[in-house]
Structure formats: structure tokens, C-alpha cells
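Suppose you are handed only these lines of text.
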Amino acid sequence: MSTIERALNKAKNEDEKSFISSDLTSQITDENRNLENNSVNFQKTMFVKDDTTDNLKKNTTETPEIQHIDWDHLASLGFVTPSKNSDATAQEEYRNIKRPLLNNAFGVGSIGINRSNLILVTSSVPGEGKTYSTINLALSIANERDKKVLLIDADVARPSISKALGIKSSPGLIEYLEGQAVDFSDIILKTNMPGLSIIPAGKQHKHSTELLSSNRMIQLTEQLSSRYPDRLVIFDSPPLLAATQGEVLAGLVGQVVLVVEAEKTPQSMVMASVGKLVFCDIVLLLLNKTKTTEVNHYGYGTYGH
Ligand SMILES: Nc1ncnc2c1ncn2[C@@H]1O[C@H](COP(=O)(O)OP(=O)(O)OP(=O)(O)O)[C@@H](O)[C@H]1O
Ligand SMILES: [Mg+2]
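From them, the structure of the protein bound to adenosine-5'-triphosphate can be written out as follows.
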């Protein structure tokens, strides 16, 4: 890696470090932004001049390592990868599933919707296909050249995204929410798929529900929405009827995808879940694991207010 590349990486790291460093970040004025830019430029210059010192070594180790997604493992688990060998029908179905989400996030559908670029994928009960849908959606969107996706494993009690992708699992969301000198730049993982970044769930924590409803989590979601408005942020979540965490998370996002396992989840449970989401602006129902060959395996029904 050339000196200039290292310097640019360092500057980018600094930018991510400044993320959510203060409660007032979202109120940065244009004047302050200029000051911030100047400061980053200054750091770049210092970094290049400092080429031979220990400082460089320290900063070089801070260069984010790229997480390599284990595509073969992912394919063996049945996920819909961008590979040409992947099921073309499933790829097409995810194209159809992501369109309304993108329109609600960035198109005319976003008008009047707070945090429209934040999407929670949830379900009524375990095993309906949240993680399956979350990863497939994220891959399908990141596969579009001009789109960026941040995938967050917010199913902190039963995390599975890192294992499925074959990437590191900690530190993650929980460590960040605990505070204690864990920066945003410490938990966001770049991957070898351009446009796809991951925040793993992190370690198990007995007060994870409190952490997910903490001020730090509220600030994180606010800033993910305001500082990265061009990026789609997709959260994998716990099921709604098993614990309160899913409901808490639903209150922090602009769109909710409620995965429903076809021919299995009773209507009463779906209605109970919908009842927990009445305060959400946009709720899309995703019918998953349909067996019939006459219709798509996945499909949306919408629930609006
Ligand atoms: N559309 C689908 N086609 C084929 N297999 C699927 C589909 N959706 C989910 N599965 C499989 O069903 C199982 C459960 O899916 P998944 O782990 O995504 O559910 P989940 O809702 O995240 O469960 P949990 O609540 O335990 O986290 C997995 O083995 C997954 O690969
Ligand atoms: Mg899951």
C-alpha cells in the first residue's frame, strides 16, 4: 500500500472515529464542518510527513482490515449470492423485494418518513427467515454499483450473521453500546464486497435489552440516518413475540419488514406482531418459504396506516 493510500485510509478512519463522538454531532454547522475538513486535511499532511516514525506504525495497524466473505460457505447454507451460479429466480425475487424498500428509502416514498434509510427485518417467532432475508437483501442491494449497505446484527441474543458470512464477530454493537472507549470505527467492518459493511452483534450481555433502548443506541440510529443518508442500513432482529427487543428496535427505524413463514405462522401471531408495529410508518410483510411453484417463493403484502 502506498504512503498516499495509507494517508487516505488514516483520514477515513479519523472521519469514522469522529462519528457519534459527541451528542452534538448532528448539530454541526457548516462552519464547523469546514473546520472539521481542515482538521482532516491537516492530519493527512502530518501523516505523510510522519512517515518514518512510530506514529505511522501505530496508524498503519489501525488501517481497517478487510473481512473476506466466505462465499462458498454462504452458498452451501442456501443464501442467494451475487455469483452467476446462484439461483437466478431467487436473485430476481430479491430484486423485486428490494425495490419498494429502496423507493421508500430514497425515492418519493421517503417523503415524510423519518429515518427511511433504516430498515428492520423481524418476524413473529424464531426461524421464519429473518437472517436469511436480511443477508440476501443486503447482498442484492450492495451488488448494485451505486448502492451502499450497512448490515447490523441486532439479534444480539442469538447472533448469526458473522458465522454465516465467515467474518469476525466481536467487538460489535454491544461493545459500542456499553461505551468504554469503543468507537464506531472499531465495530464497523469493511468487506471484500464493495458497498457492504457489517456491524456484528458482539458479545453476549445480560442487559442487552436495556442497551438496545439506551440513549447511545438512539443517537447511533439518528446519526446513521443523518450522516449516511445515501446508505441503506439493514438490521437483523430478534422475533417480536419472543422478547421486547424487536419492538424496541422497530421504534428506531423508518421501515420494518415483517417476515412471515408461509403455511406455518398462525394468522393470530401475525396480527399480534402487526399490533406491536402500529407506531411504525412503513411495515411490509414478506411471505417467506412458500412451497408452491406457481407463485414466487417470497413476496410482499403491505400493511399501511
Ligand atoms: N426462503 C427460504 N428458502 C430456503 N430456506 C430458507 C428460506 N428462509 C429461511 N430458510 C432457512 O430456514 C432456516 C431459518 O432461517 P433463519 O435463520 O433466517 O431464521 P431466523 O428468523 O433468522 O431465525 P432466528 O429467529 O432463530 O434468528 C435457515 O436454515 C434458513 O437457511
Ligand atoms: Mg436469525
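What can we learn from it? Residues 130-131, 155, 160, 236 surround magnesium ion (ligand 2) (CB under 6 Å). Residues 66-303 form a domain with the Rossmann fold fold (CATH 3.40.50.300).
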